[in-house]
Amino acid sequence: MKNFKNITLALIALTALNSCSNDDVQAIADVSGSTQINFDSKVGTADFALNTPFTISGQSYQFDHLRYWVSDVKLVSDKNVTYALSNSFFLMEETSDILVQETFTYKANKREAIDLKDVPSGSYTKVIFSIGVDATHNDNMSIQDGELSQLNGMTNVSWMWHTSYIFSSLTGKNVTPDTPVAVSVETGLNANYRTVEITLPTALIVSAGKTAKLNLNVDVEKIIKDIDLVAKPKISASTPELMTKVADNYKNNVFTVKSVE
Amino acid sequence: MLNRIIKLGSITGLAFLSFSCNDFDDNYQEPLPLVLVPDNFPEFVDSKTNPLTSDGVLLGKKLFFDKRLSGNNKVSCATCHQQSLAFSDGFALTKQGISGNALERNSPALINLAWANNGLFWDGGSTNLESQAFAPLAHVDEMHQNLDELLDELKEDTDYPKMFQRAFGKTINQADIVKAIAQFERTLISSNSRYDKYVRGESGGILDQEELEGLKLAEQFCFSCHAGSLMTDNLYHNNGIDNDFTDDSELMMRRGRARITGSSEDLGKFRTPTLRNIEKTGPYMHDGRLGTLEAVLEHYSNSVLFSSTLDPLLRKNGNLGIPLSETEKKQLIAFLKTLTDYAYINDKRFSE
């Protein structure tokens, strides 16, 4: 009787698999537990927090938001197999309320994790992702993949430089002077799109029944590495060479591996 | 003017209605062409991400004329793009937006935008009509529409939910709003001026002596930039109306094309507007500073200013500008007026 039950269960399982398309069967067979990338914001070694003074290059800054697009996430396995999440756009952020279009409020939010779906089991040794929005999506705001939207305050529809997305934005104030100075560090030109490649110190093992986690440090201090925010508190389209520097910092300096679980 | 006929033989490009499955029923009718492109025009290349459909164009037209698209429900796209003026508005810098503040740029005429493939706005700050539409919709001095609230407003309409479903197979969303408007805009084709008929050898295509002399002058002095049948090269030029483009303000408006490209070689350059319907689209230049065609020709003749990015064609043999006699100016203006397309500015397909 017990055997019969087991056979029945096996048959049901088989039927369920068969009802899927071939692609699905492949996916289900290979797919593991969950996979997550965490972007843990820091200022040097301290945890990043809003409206909290941090000393950077001798100046005291209080930030009110840190936001950036992570897109086209890829994991590369030790067998050189690539898992790619195309047309993926994730808005990473730690932000106070934002007034969008001067008419409605985007609520304060903290978001540091990306859940990757259906990552095949394997041993992953490299992570690749881009900061910003690729030219196809940036130039045509009606192609709204992933979390791209006109409603999150990460667009620039009001002619500041272009009808396009803001790729990254760090804003707040320098509170060192007697009268605090607003600071804003933004990128958003197609030329600012950067792809980050990080080789992992230990492999990210994705397998059934396990939650694989890749924890990255995001060092806010490095976003403005080699940039004099006292001389130029606002980095935007009118300072394209500084935007390039910020974009390069995102590519080369901002992200490091904290841990692999 | 109302007996416009585009002979089938003269039509080289046709985009037909696209059909969803359930269109094939007993009431099948021959598809009507969505756009008619005469053979003196370049090929019509449809958008790959937003191809024309009859439902999309119909929806776009309704949206184009709908004042609910503005924050105070008093301004539509058509407010600043009036058909009688070839979809321009007659103001130098309009104050018709909901704030009542003057805009930074002259409202451009909407003519043959399906071929405007090298940037929109006077400085090319938008790459396609879809993205472009978000700017006036959202801008605080234009329609200043809360794009979230807009969905609720449109959902309350008796027709919109069905029309969006038919056009895009989805409920109302921001992306499909701009897609529909862009589709309607791509159907705004002006190709039936008296000059077009002259070029195509069609009835009514007669130019008098003064106009023909003007045409010769235009061929000599104007068509290098106002080029081809579209009468624009879709490029950016410094035509010598200013010689100082220093602008360190956030918007950098005076820099012209350079505010977008960041290149000093583009300082003071602006998009070449088409000469089509030019009689109707004044005042002229990116800021509407020149009120009449006479003033425009006076500029090219006597007032061109030198700067390092000045178009070389306006500085031949070391001389600034294009010297024109009073007779030549009159002849040129006579010719320019043959570019008015009365069929276009009266076409019911483009009317509310």
Automatic annotation (TrEMBL), chain A:
The lineage of its organism: Bacteria, Pseudomonadati, Bacteroidota, Flavobacteriia, Flavobacteriales. Keywords: Signal. Residues 33-233 form the Copper-binding protein MbnP-like domain. The keyword Signal applies. This is Copper-binding protein MbnP-like domain-containing protein. It holds the Pfam family MbnP. Residues 1-21 form the signal peptide. InterPro entries: MbnP-like_dom (IPR046863).
TrEMBL record, chain B:
GO terms for cellular component: periplasmic space. Gene3D superfamilies: Cytochrome c-like domain. The keyword NAD does not apply. Heme c 2 binds at residues 222, 225-226. Signal peptide: none annotated. Heme c 1 binds at residues 77, 80-81. The keyword Iron applies. InterPro entries: Cyt_c-like_dom, Cyt_c-like_dom_sf, Cytochrome_c_Peroxidase/MauG, Di-haem_cyt_c_peroxidsae, MauG/Cytc_peroxidase. Its cofactor is heme. Keywords: Heme, Iron, Metal-binding, Oxidoreductase, Periplasm, Peroxidase, Signal. It is found in: Periplasm. Binds 2 heme groups. Residues 55-188 form the Cytochrome c domain. GO terms for molecular function: cytochrome-c peroxidase activity; electron transfer activity; heme binding; metal ion binding. Binds 2 heme groups per subunit. PANTHER family: CYTOCHROME C PEROXIDASE-RELATED. This is Cytochrome-c peroxidase. The lineage of its organism: Bacteria, Pseudomonadati, Bacteroidota, Flavobacteriia, Flavobacteriales.
